Amino acid sequence: MENKKWDAFISHASEDKDSIVRELTTELQKFHLKVWYDEFSLNVGDSLSKSIDEGLIYSNFGIIISPDFLKKRWTDYEYRSLLSKEIDGQKIILPIWHNITKEEIRKYSLYLSDKFALDSSKESTRQLTIKLLKVIRPDIYQDLCRYISFKKLIANSESVVVNRSELKHPKERNSILSKQLLVRAKSIFYGIGQNLSMSLNESIYNYELDIRPEREIQTWEIMNSCYLEFIHKHNISDLVIKKRNN
C-alpha cells in the first residue's frame, strides 16, 4: 500500500460523531494511526471541499459509518470518490455498519452491501479498532500481537536468577535481510561500524539473529547518524578514531 499523508479517512454523518465516530477516531490515534477526521483535521478558514478532497486523495483507506450517512450529500460525494479508488482492485473502503441493516445498505449500493463489514452493534469500539488496525497498519497490528503474547508469557513464567556465563548466544538465523535492509546495514557498517571489531558478514549475521532486524537496523541508523554528525562537526576522520582505539 502506497505511503500517504493519512492512514485513513473517516467518512461519516455529523449525527454519528457522538455515538461512535469521535471515540473510534481517538482509539485509532492511540495506536498512532494518522486519521483524517474533520474535527481534528480542519482549521478555521479552511475550505471544506478542498480539505475533504485532500483527505480522500492522500488517505490509504476510507472508513464509512452510518445510518445518516446514506442521506447526506457530502457523504455521498465521499463515497463516490472512495469507490473510484477501488476501480483498480485495491481494497480501499472499510465499512462499519452503525445502527443500520444490510437491506438499507443494499437499497443505497449493491456494491457496498456485498463488502464484508464490521458491525458496531456486535463489537466494542476497541474491537473495531483492532480489526481496522490489522488491515490499515499490519505492522502495528503485528507489534501489538507480539506485545500481548509477551505479556502472557511473562505472566505465566517463573523468574530465576542466572549467571551471565550460562546465557547462550543464538546461532540460528531468525530472518534473512532483504536487499533494502542489506543496503542500510552496509551504510551502518561503513560508518560507525568501522570502529567495531567485526566484519561486514558478522554484522549482517548479527542482524539476522533478530526476529525484527529492521528495528535493530533502525536503532543503529540513529547512532550512525549521530556518529557521522559528530565527526563532521569536530573534523575528526575515521582513521584518527581507529588509531585512538588501537
Structure notes:
- The chain starts with 5 loop residues before the first strand and ends with a helix.
- It has helices at 17-30, 38-41, 48-57, 73-85, 102-108, 110-114, 125-136, 138-155, 179-189, 200-208, 213-233, 238-245, and strands spanning 6-11, 35-36, 59-65, 93-97, 118-119.
- Strands 2-1-3-4-5 form a five-stranded parallel β-sheet, with helices on both faces.
- By secondary structure, the chain is an alpha/beta fold.
- It is built from twelve helices and five strands.
- The model is unreliable at 39-51 (pLDDT under 50).
- The chain has two domains: 6-143, 3-Layer(aba) Sandwich (Rossmann fold); 171-244, no CATH class.
CATH topology of the largest domain: Rossmann fold
Question: How many strands?
Answer: 5
- Would you identify the regions where 5 or more consecutive residues have pLDDT less than 50? 39-51
Helix content: 40-55%
Q: In terms of structural class, how would the helical and strand content be classed?
A: alpha/beta
If you compute it from the alpha carbons, what radius of gyration comes out, rounded to the nearest whole angstrom?
25 Å
Order of the strands making up the biggest sheet: 2-1-3-4-5
Helix count equals: 12
Q: What is the CATH C-level name of the largest domain?
A: Alpha Beta
Number of domains: 2
**Helix-strand topology string:** EHEHHEHEHHEHHHHHH
End-to-end Cα distance: 48 Å
Task: Give the averaged pLDDT, no decimals.
Answer: 78
* Morphology call: elongated
Second-tier CATH architecture of the largest domain: 3-Layer(aba) Sandwich
Proportion of beta-strand residues: 5-15%
Give the CATH H-level superfamily of the largest domain: Toll/interleukin-1 receptor homology (TIR) domain
Pfam family, one: TIR_2
Domain TIR: 4-124
Protein name: TIR domain-containing protein
